[in-house]
Design goal:
Elements lengths: L1 H22 L2 H7 L4 H4 L19 E3 L14 H13 L3 E5 L2 E5 L2 E2 L4 E5 L3 E5 L8 E3 L6 E3 L3 E4 L2 E7 L2 E3 L8 E2 L5 H9 L3 E2 L5 E3 L2 H14 L7 H4 L11 E4 L2 E6 L2 E3 L6 E4 L2 E6 L2 E3 L10 E4 L2 E6 L2 E3 L3 E6 L12 E7 L2 E2 L4 E5 L7 E12 L3 E6 L7 E23 L6 H4 L11 E22 L6 E13 L1 E20 L3 E14 L9 E6 L4 E6 L8 E5 L8 E3 L1
Parallel strand pairs: 1-2, 2-5, 3-6, 4-9, 5-10, 6-11, 9-15, 10-16, 11-17, 15-18, 16-19, 17-20, 18-21, 19-22, 20-23, 21-24, 22-25, 23-26, 24-27, 25-28, 26-28, 27-29, 28-30, 29-30, 30-31, 31-32, 31-33, 32-33, 33-34, 34-35, 34-36, 35-37, 36-38
Antiparallel strand pairs: 7-8, 12-14, 13-14
């Protein structure tokens, strides 16, 4: 009883500290951040290569010099192109966007260019989708709509300043009726567009609604296609707002990025990327409206950012490409001092992980009202090795589903997941996750771990955590899980429910008062569950065994 009392005292003090932290306005925390880039790269749990900020020549051009008009009516696409080209010919520098509303089509960046938005500057992407040409995707048979802010194969490139970039995404995105209020839905319908036959989805145009089916038929023709063939599907081919492809030395510092057609920020196959002091704003109902997606990149630092997204908040993706089990496509990622509000997940890995991931550190972040707090997802055919993931000092409030979720049969059916498959290079492997100092005030469930029969989720450590939720901890197909100094406080029901789980070490766990059932063990493969230094006398019933579990599966010390 003494150990439990001391633990509960520590927990109470921590909860008070967390509440005080949640009460501090974001702009106050934001303003007090005085850390430098080098501070974020110290004392990491893995070897992080040295990172630098891109350096640009001390010269600048102003888009007004090239005929730009900031009245929100004049289309400045050619002006931006001329200003960037002129600055590039001089050897690079800063392209200044002064205060005004700068309506434009796509902006294509170049090496050694810093697109700098002064305070008061609003780059407004055109609502006329024909201003965004359909182009061929290199090394593929597909076509895409030109990304509004784009750079490929560049070195030393930045978007900085205190201005705003608005992607006019509401003209592109579909909206689920279930995600809107009655008044919002009424306004959407009145604005034009079309409604799906079942009445559940609003589409801005009929072309957008019918685009997916059109593309299926088009691609089934098995003939060479052109931009003209893709024209009827333009509205369906929503672009990301800002995309860098195969670039080195990328900096995003200061601006607000909002209202994206799809993902907001999407660096892909880039190296040495710094994203700091930015705001990402997509409506919470924005379909596929991810905030910051890092795809197959190396050496990335994200700090002091605020995200509100319609899908995943800060997300890691990695498709196979040139990856091997020893050299993953995504590695050396540091995320710190960020706040994520509405999003499908605060910090997310997946769902495509087949390119492999290694060496990710996430520290000192708030997740407020996200669907999931820490969300790690993949599935058969989309998986690879994900390891050496370090998450610490995460403070969450009002999580709609799980505070922590591991799921390697994401979007699969229960029929296929109930049987064992052959392990191959695209079998998801989640292992070596180290999670500590996690606090959550309110969630539907504390922790859910669901692996595959042929590849359990394994080598997960959770320590020093307090999670208050409606439901407790569940695991299915999990192995070598270690919990230390963890207090899970469910509103009702069992605290720990372990099924087909093996080699668990559960040390110094707290048993909340009036617990109905502390632990349920089930499944034929459940074995070697070690419960150490844990007082369960508060529970009405301590342990319950399923019919398939031998009582020797539990070892109490």
């Amino acid at each position: 009883m003494k150990n439990t009392s001391n633990l509960n005292c520590k927990i109470s003090c921590t909860i008070i500290a967390v509440i005080l932290l949640f009460g501090m306005p974001f702009n106050m925390v934001y303003a007090q951040n005085t850390k430098n880039l080098s501070d974020y790269l110290k004392n990491l749990p893995f070897q992080m290569p040295e990172m630098t900020i891109p350096v640009f020549p001390d010269r600048s051009v102003n888009i007004r010099e090239f005929g730009a008009v900031g009245d929100g009516q004049f289309l400045n696409t050619e002006v931006f192109a001329k200003a960037i080209e002129a600055c590039t010919k001089q050897g690079g520098g800063k392209v200044i966007v002064p205060p005004g509303i700068w309506l434009t089509g796509p902006i294509v960046l170049q090496s050694n260019i810093n697109l700098h938005l002064e305070k008061g500057a609003l780059i407004l992407l055109s609502r006329n989708h024909k201003d965004f040409p359909i182009i061929h995707v290199p090394s593929s048979k597909n076509f895409m709509v030109t990304t509004p802010i784009f750079g490929a194969n560049l070195e030393n490139v930045a978007v900085t300043g205190e201005g705003i970039i608005d992607g006019s995404g509401d003209t592109w995105r579909q909206v689920k009726k279930a995600k809107t209020t009655e008044a919002q839905w009424k306004d959407l319908v009145a604005s034009g567009g079309v409604i799906s036959s079942d009445g559940s989805m609003y589409w801005p145009t009929r072309e957008a609604m019918e685009g997916e089916e059109y593309l299926k038929k088009l691609r089934s023709l098995n003939k060479p296609l052109t931009e003209t063939d893709y024209e009827p599907a333009r509205d369906f081919l929503r672009p990301n707002l800002v995309q860098f492809q195969k670039c080195k030395n990328v900096l995003l510092d200061g601006p607000t990025f909002q209202n994206s057609p799809k993902f907001v920020l999407y660096p892909s196959q880039c190296e040495n990327v710094v994203i700091r002091n930015i705001k990402v704003l997509n409506e919470w109902w924005a379909q596929n409206g991810d905030g910051i997606d890092i795809s197959a990149c190396k050496n990335v630092l994200i700090y002091n950012c605020m995200v509100n997204a319609g899908d995943d908040g800060i997300c890691m993706k990695s498709s196979r490409g040139q990856a091997t089990d020893t050299v993953p496509n995504l590695q050396n990622i540091v995320i710190s001092d960020c706040v994520v509000y509405h999003a499908h997940g605060g910090f997310v890995i997946g769902s495509n992980t087949d390119g492999g991931m290694r060496n990710i550190s996430v520290n000192n972040c708030n997740f407020i009202s996200t669907d999931v707090g820490l969300r790690f997802k993949s599935s058969r055919g989309r998986g690879g090795v994900v390891e050496n993931i370090y998450v610490s000092n995460i403070f969450m409030k009002g999580i709609a589903t799980q505070a922590i979720l591991f799921d390697t049969y994401y979007e699969s059916t229960s029929e296929t997941n109930s049987r064992q498959f052959e392990v191959n290079e695209k079998t998801p492997r989640f292992r070596k996750f180290y999670i500590s100092n996690i606090f959550c005030s309110g969630a539907a469930q504390a922790v859910k771990i669901t692996g595959l029969p042929e590849m359990p989720i394994q080598d997960i450590e959770l320590k020093d955590a307090v999670i208050e939720a409606d439901k407790g901890f569940t695991s299915l197909e999990a192995k070598n899980i270690r919990l230390t100094n963890v207090n899970i406080i469910p509103a009702s029901g069992v605290v720990y429910e372990l099924k087909n789980s093996a080699d668990f070490v559960l040390r110094n766990l707290a048993c909340p008062k009036n617990t109905e059932l502390f632990m349920m063990l089930d499944g034929k493969s459940t074995s070697n569950i070690q419960l150490i230094g844990t007082d369960v006398t508060w529970a009405k019933k301590a342990i319950e065994f399923g019919n398939d579990v031998d009582h020797s599966a539990l070892i109490k010390r």
